[in-house]
Design brief:
Strand order of the largest sheet: 2-1-3-4
Radius of gyration: 18 Å
Oligomer: single chain
CATH architecture: Up-down Bundle
Distance between the termini: 25 Å
Helix content: 40-55%
Low-confidence stretches: 229-251
Mean pLDDT: 90
C-alpha cells in the first residue's frame, strides 16, 4: 500500500489530493510541522526532513509535483494525466511544474519573512516584494482561465492539483483577495471537487486519530529555541530551521 507522510495543509497536500482523486488506497502518516525540528526521528526515514515523502513499494519520492505525475502514470491510466501523444501534453507538463516552481516558491519567502522568523529578523519589505512577485506571475493565467475551466487538455488534470495547492497556500497568506476574476472562479471551482474535500477531511481525521496538531503548516508557530540557548542566539532562527527546506526558500507548505 502507498504511504504518504504529511503535515496539515503543507505541500504534501498535493499528493494527498491526487490520492483522493484517483481513489487509491493509502496510509496517511501525520507529522508535526516542521518535522525536521519537531519529530527528529523522521530524519531516519527521510534524511531531508521534508514533506511530502511518498513510499510505494521500493519507490520513495519527496517532490510534490513529481509525485502527482507519478501517481497518475504509475497507477493509471487516468484522465488526471495527459499522454505524450495527446494535444496539450506540453501545457500539462508546464503547468504541473509552474504550480510549484513559479507559484509556490515566492510564497515560501513570504511565509519565512512575514511569519516564521523571530520578530527581530522579519523583513516585511521582502515579504511584500515576493507577494507581488507571486501575484504578477499568477496573472498570466487570467486570459487562459477566462476562456476554459481548467489549465489544459480540456479537463481537470494533475496540473490543476499542482496550481491549486499554490492557490490554497495563497489563501492562507490572505492573498486570495487579489486574485483576478477568472483565477478566483477557478479556485472556487477546485475547492468544490469531491477529491479536494475528501483530502481536507482525510487530513483532519488522521491528525485527530494520531494526536497531531491540526493547525495548518502555513499558520504554525515557529519552533521555540532549545533549552540552554543564549538570549542573543534566541533572536535568530535556529540553524536547523534555516537549513530546513521546509522553512526557507524551499518550504514544504
Amino acid at each position: 500500500m502507498i504511504t504518504l507522510y504529511h503535515c496539515m495543509s503543507a505541500r504534501s497536500f498535493r499528493p494527498l489530493w491526487m490520492l483522493e482523486e484517483l481513489k487509491l488506497p493509502y496510509a496517511l502518516v501525520m507529522l508535526p510541522f516542521p518535522p525536521r525540528v519537531r519529530q527528529r526521528d523522521y530524519l531516519g526515514i527521510n534524511p531531508l526532513g521534508t514533506i511530502p515523502l511518498l513510499i510505494d513499494g521500493s519507490t520513495r519520492m519527496t517532490e510534490s509535483a513529481a509525485i502527482c505525475q507519478y501517481l497518475c502514470s504509475r497507477h493509471g491510466p487516468s484522465d488526471l494525466g495527459v499522454a505524450p501523444d495527446e494535444e496539450g501534453y506540453g501545457d500539462y507538463l508546464n503547468y504541473l511544474h509552474f504550480g510549484e516552481a513559479t507559484l509556490t516558491f515566492p510564497q515560501t519567502l513570504v511565509l519565512r519573512y512575514a511569519r516564521f522568523e523571530p520578530d527581530a529578523r522579519r523583513q516585511p519589505g521582502v515579504a511584500e516584494d515576493y507577494a507581488r512577485w507571486f501575484l504578477a506571475r499568477l496573472r498570466v493565467l487570467e486570459p487562459l482561465l477566462a476562456s476554459q475551466a481548467y489549465l489544459c487538455a480540456g479537463r481537470f488534470t494533475a496540473a490543476d492539483v499542482s496550481v491549486g495547492y499554490a492557490l490554497m497556500l495563497a489563501q492562507f497568506l490572505e492573498l486570495q483577495t487579489q486574485f483576478t476574476p477568472a483565477v478566483a472562479d477557478y479556485w472556487a471551482r477546485l475547492q468544490q471537487r469531491e477529491g479536494f474535500q475528501a483530502a481536507l477531511q482525510a487530513q483532519a481525521r488522521a491528525a485527530l486519530s494520531q494526536g497531531v496538531d491540526s493547525v495548518p503548516a502555513p499558520d504554525a508557530a515557529p519552533p521555540a529555541p532549545r533549552p540552554g540557548t543564549r538570549v542573543a542566539d534566541a533572536q535568530a532562527t535556529p540553524p536547523e530551521v534555516l537549513t530546513d527546506p521546509s522553512l526557507n526558500g524551499r518550504t514544504d507548505h
